[in-house]
Specification:
By secondary structure, the chain is α/β, with parallel strands linked by helices. Among the domains are: about 5-280, TIM Barrel (Alpha-Beta Barrel); about 300-370, no CATH class. The protein has 17 helices and 16 strands. The chain has helices at about 25-40, 55-65, 90-95, 110-120, 120-140, 150-155, 160-170, 185-200, 215-225, 245-255, 270-280, 305-310, 340-345, 355-370, 380-390, 440-450, 505-525; strands spanning about 5-10, 45, 70-80, 100-110, 140-150, 175-180, 205-210, 230-235, 300, 330, 400-410, 415-425, 430-435, 460-470, 480-490, 495-500. The protein has an 8-stranded parallel barrel, surrounded by 8 helices. The protein has a 3-stranded antiparallel β-sheet with strand order 11-12-13, with helices on one face. Strands 14-15-16 form a 3-stranded antiparallel β-sheet. Strand 2 (about 45), helix 2 (about 55-65) and strand 3 (about 70-80) form a beta-alpha-beta unit. The longest helix has 25 residues, at about 505-525. It is elongated. The mean pLDDT is about 90.
């Protein structure tokens, strides 16, 4: 198809906030708006003024302090109520108070909702749409009309669904947006219906779909191919129930697969960063498998794949990850070949020859350890230490002689964890005891107590995450467990791993690696 402009309309601040587990503050919403503006999103829907105090406050703050360079802020609301006067309708008044140049209002295009929810006549519903758009238009606003439940309405009563669009256009709407509000329409149906609507409606069409059958991205792209020139969605697919169409997947698909003009032609190299930033603000875990921007989107594990990728990335990648601000990752596992080991060693700062005994030794060691339950895809700090040890470049800073952990419940109320650690540091022996909130915390404190005198940089480091996975559930309480620990300092964060039938030992192994990696990292930085 010919290249054309597609306008991107983001509703993360409204529809996205309806996602289970998300509750934006006004400050959060302002920050997200700035991130969206940074990459050139055309329209940012800020919320529904008048529906809640938070959205009212957002539009007040936005008017004072939100300086958008590329995006247009939009306020969202509904048509007037049935039987009411438009000038007195509280929703319409709220929209005008938001003081945004663009407004989006939704109205019913499915006769089922008009009869069963609004309990009014089909004629009155059309009048509600036209009156509302006309009233706002006369007051200098540019109006976008969202035809709610359009696709379900069109399937039941196509003539009336089209009339709802015509009513909005008669009132002066800039364009009309076809909504798959229940998210249950198939991609082929979306394409066919958009084509049919386009034959009847000559004004620009938009698409707004939900993901209830997992087809929101495909449906949005199909709608553009059928003639829509505006796409509504949310970042990371946040939204009620199964979410909205994920703009993070839609944007690069339109640009790099269809050659469409969107984001003013820039912003894609920051897509991964913005996606992660919005996930962080939303207090939601970024999905590793998220297309284009996920941590695993361009990760390669099988040795055959890695070998081919090193020769020509096109063999197992649909695009260059750099275009969306992501990066290629080579994972090390029992499936890896020597090519994977050599590539990963290079990423970690080691020179390794594919034909060397050292490469064979590291590969054999990784495969043996993975049989025991280790996984190095995430725990790259432990993998780096493994390579250093196998290469005999590892410098041991301390050695464990023994440790003991006691967990005691006192007075039926208080649970006490106490760790005793005996270390050898250089030629000196250290014996320390520490209390903690739990056994791992106690071990960490005892270890630091011994080391801090010799390595004051440990003050910069703290543990930020702790994960436990049972590896063989059938063994019950005797099962082998895998512990992953995330640590961070002022510059970086890293993961380490430990595996054992004893959760305390597995935690110790991961904890020890985390500190040893910090020392190795500091030595490398000092040499520079």
């Amino acid at each position: 198809m010919k290249k054309g402009k597609v306008f991107i309309y983001d509703t993360t601040l409204r529809d996205g906030s309806q996602s289970e587990g998300i509750s934006f503050t006004v400050k959060d919403k302002l920050r997200i708006a700035q991130e969206l503006d940074k990459i050139g999103i055309d329209f940012i829907e800020g919320g529904w003024p008048g529906s809640n105090p938070k959205d009212n406050q957002f539009f007040k703050e936005a008017a004072k302090s939100l300086k958008l360079k590329r995006s247009k802020l939009v306020a969202f609301g509904s048509t007037r109520r049935a039987g009411s006067k438009t000038s007195r309708d509280p929703v319409i008044k709220g929209l005008l108070r938001a003081e945004t140049k663009y407004l989006t209002i939704f109205g019913k295009s499915w006769d089922l909702h008009v009869k069963d929810v609004f309990r009014t006549t089909l004629k009155e519903n059309l009048k509600m749409i036209e009156d509302s758009v006309k009233y706002l238009k006369k007051r200098g606003r540019r109006v976008i009309f969202d035809a709610e439940h359009f696709f379900d309405g069109y399937k039941d009563n196509p003539e009336y669904a089209i009339k709802s669009l015509e009513a909005a256009l008669a009132g002066g709407s800039e364009n009309v947006v076809l909504c798959d509000t229940n998210g249950g329409t198939l991609t082929s149906q979306i394409f066919e219906i958009v084509e049919e609507v386009k034959a009847n409606i000559k004004k620009p069409l938009g698409i707004h779909v939900h993901n209830d059958i997992g087809m929101a991205v495909a449906n949005s792209v199909a709608a553009v191919q059928a003639g829509c020139v505006q796409v509504q969605g949310t970042f990371n697919g946040y939204g009620e129930r199964c979410g909205n169409a994920d703009l993070v997947s839609i944007l690069p698909t339109l640009r790099f697969k269809l050659g469409m003009d969107c984001l003013f032609g820039f912003g894609f190299k920051e897509l991964t960063e913005v996606s992660k930033c919005i996930a962080e603000i939303s207090n939601m875990r970024q999905q590793d498998s998220q297309p284009y921007v996920g941590n695993s989107a361009f990760a390669h594990k099988a040795g055959v794949h890695v070998n081919a990728i090193l020769k020509n990335p096109r063999t197992y990648e649909h695009m260059d990850p750099v275009k969306v601000g992501n990066k290629r990752r080579m994972l090390i596992s029992e499936l890896s070949g020597k090519s994977s080991i050599v590539k990963k060693a290079g990423e970690l700062g080691f020179k390794l020859d594919k034909t060397s005994d050292r490469a064979k030794r590291i590969l054999s060691l990784v495969q043996d350890m993975e049989k025991e339950g280790y996984q190095f895809e995430l725990a790259e700090a432990s993998l780096s230490l493994l390579m250093q040890r196998a290469s005999k470049t590892f410098k041991e800073q301390f050695r464990l002689e023994d440790f003991r952990v006691i967990v005691e419940k006192r007075n039926s109320y208080e649970l006490i964890s106490e760790a005793t650690v005996k270390l050898k540091i250089g030629g000196k022996k250290r014996h320390t005891v520490a209390l903690g909130d739990g056994p791992v915390h106690a071990m960490d404190r005892a270890l630091r107590k011994s080391l801090i005198e010799f390595f004051p940089s440990l003050n910069e480091m703290h543990l930020s995450d702790f994960r436990v996975r049972v590896l063989d559930e059938k063994s019950g309480t005797a099962a082998r467990v895998r512990v992953l620990i995330q640590s961070q300092d002022q510059d970086d964060s890293w993961w380490t791993i430990g595996v054992s039938e004893n959760i305390i030992e597995a935690s110790w192994l991961a904890l020890k690696d985390s500190i040893e990696y910090k020392f190795a990292k500091d030595r490398k930085a000092h040499k520079k």
